[in-house]
Amino acid sequence: MVDIQFVRENADLVQRKTKEKGYAVDVSKLLEVDVERRAQLTVTEELRARRNALTAEMKGARPTEEQIERGKQLKDEIVQKEATLSELEETYTQLLWQIPNITFDDVPLGGEEDSVEIKRVGDQPTGATDHLDFALARDWVDFERGAKVAGQKFYYLKGDLALLENAITQFALDFVIKKGFSFMTVPHMVNSRTAVGTGFAPRSSDQSDEYAIEGEDLSLIATAEMSLTGYHADEIIDEAKLPLLYAGLSPCYRKEAGAAGKHTRGLFRVHQFNKLEMYAFCLPEQSRQLHEMILNVEEELWQALGVPYHVVNIAAGDLGAPAAKKYDIEYWSPVDAKYRELTSCSNCTDFQARNLNIRVRRTDGTIEILHTLNGTAVSLARALVAIIEHYQTEGGTLEVPTVLRPYMSNKSQI
């Protein structure tokens, strides 16, 4: 959530930024409820203080009829005020949680089509065979049996393609470890506090993307980011230990709600896929620089894999609730003759950390909310799509990218 003090001092800015992100929130209503809530809290605390004073006054002696009557009146008033305060607190919390993170000033305005290309790397070849047709012809993927077992958009990877996915994973893991990230496996389910605290709040109920576990306070993770954010919940981290850099490997489960009209063929958009996620906890003054660092790691990794791409500064209306700024790396698809999303990296500033009470203790002893960032190293299903499209040969084989060959028994083709 955002800092309520910031909202109080910058109401017009918060309203404008919230609208630019596409969220319908009445900031003035929030501030009205905030004023009522604080006034009601003051009255309630005064009544509690009077009750405590009366209790002290009666201590060690038999209470008078007047004291007993005053005690009953105070009790009734406190019960009434606490009920009103509880309702105001609930309304206040709901309104505050609806406000997304405030975007940076260099985030473009508008929707998805208004995102701005800031860098382009590699050529733009055309004419490749679609990845699904290529994989099906070699019996590398099976969506029919995936649907039989789990439903549409679930699949099996087989043979050399499954081995190639493993090779990409191992290469990417080695790559990010050398960049200073510590490897972690993570829980594949999180409780509601972690899920909501991470900021996966849809703009509307039909956009909810997570699979909930019926009868349990658990949902399957849509990304390792969710588990990694919760790792330090309710902790205070010494300044000298920051930044903390983690790499979490996990499957990701997504309903892909709200994805209508987007590229969905084959492996590009599925309900379950594996992903290696980079994550950082840092000081507020470090987050902008770390954001650029994570983007650089992503770029270097995909340059090593030899896949052409461009980098996009995502427009405000296409940002999720947690991000103050996000970069996407989109690979060039020779099949579609356009760029397709491959990875992203976001600076979430103090939004997630405030939700989950993750703080830093400065060297002078002061305590404040720290910042969090996340970035995709590799999303394996889409990585396979990009490599199949760019490394297929005229002879019908798939060339193995040079950096992956040590992880594929030194095969140059499959």
Q: Distance between the terminal alpha carbons, to the nearest Å?
A: 49 Å
Strand order of the largest sheet: 1-10-11-12-15-9-8-4
Question: What is the helix tally?
Answer: 12
Strand content: 15-25%
Order of helices and strands: HHHHEHEHEHEEHEHEEEHEEEHEEEH
How big is the Rg?
26 Å
Largest sheet, in brief, is: 8 strands, mixed
Enter the CATH topology name of the largest domain: BirA Bifunctional Protein, domain 2
The whole-number mean of residue pLDDT values reads: 94
Question: Secondary-structure map with pairings?
Answer:
Layout: H1 4-9, H2 11-20, H3 27-58, H4 65-97, E1 116-121, H5 131-137, E2 141-142, H6 143-149, E3 156-157, H7 159-178, E4 182-185, E5 189-190, H8 192-198, E6 219-220, H9 224-230, E7 236-238, E8 244-253, E9 272-282, H10 287-305, E10 309-313, E11 325-333, E12 338-347, H11 351-355, E13 359-361, E14 367-369, E15 371-379, H12 380-391
Parallel strand pairs: 4-8, 7-13
Antiparallel strand pairs: 1-10, 2-3, 5-6, 8-9, 9-15, 10-11, 11-12, 12-15, 13-14
Helix pairs in contact: 3-4, 5-12, 7-12, 8-9
